[in-house]
Design goal:
This protein is an alpha/beta fold. Helices cover 26% and strands 29% of the residues. It has 5 helices and 9 strands. The chain is globular and about 40 Å long.
């Protein structure tokens, strides 16, 4: 066993490349993945619920859009495909995840519109029309709240954030906490034990 987690900055685990296949909104995706990243072997069930139940960006959306905790890039690639005029920022602390997301953006023909960066490398003046995240619950409650308090204020005034959280991992308590922080939060959908939250100012 290694000490690697999907939120390890530089995984020591051998990459063991593989591919993950899934479909969203009638389009099939085949993306590169590897050991040492989040849900390396399949589209995570929470991510699947988020992409199925949230309102994907319209074809004329220009963004910018943000994927927080991009992993190997399934959300990023779907956003970039749905909104071919939008710039998508993909953020992850995991270097291997960032490399995979960049490669997968090229696979879907969006390399020129996807900016894959470490969290500290997002320019401070960028506001996001949409923020998408299957947030890393397992980093701990305090760290999760710090992450959301870092990124949600980057929403444009009329922006929307879409989050998915498993109910048994605190989806409802997170909902309440976001409301306490002054956000408008709607439970947009529930499926397979997951809450899809729509967050606005």
């Amino acid at each position: 066993m290694t000490g690697d987690h999907y939120f390890t900055a530089e995984p020591a685990t051998a990459a063991q490349p593989r591919e993950v296949e899934f479909d969203v909104a009638g389009r099939d995706y085949t993306l590169a993945s590897a050991a040492g990243v989040f849900s390396a072997d399949r589209l995570d069930p929470g991510t699947a619920v988020l992409l199925r139940k949230a309102e994907l960006p319209a074809g004329d959306a220009t963004g910018p859009l943000l994927d927080v905790g991009c992993g190997f890039g399934p959300i990023t690639c779907v956003l970039a495909t749905c909104a071919p005029s939008a710039t998508v920022w993909a953020v992850d602390v995991n270097e291997r995840a960032r490399d995979l997301t960049a490669a997968n953006a090229a696979r879907v023909g969006a390399a020129d519109r996807v900016r894959v960066v470490a969290p500290d490398d997002v320019p401070a003046d960028v506001q996001f029309a949409q923020i998408w995240s299957n947030p890393p619950i397992r980093i701990g409650k305090a760290e999760l709240r710090e992450l959301l308090l870092r990124w949600l204020p980057r929403l444009a005034p009329d922006g929307v954030a879409w989050l998915v959280v498993a109910r048994h991992l605190g989806g409802d308590s997170l909902h309440r906490w976001l409301v306490e922080q002054g956000w408008q939060v709607e439970r947009h959908a529930s499926q397979k034990g997951y809450r899809v939250l729509r967050v606005t100012r």
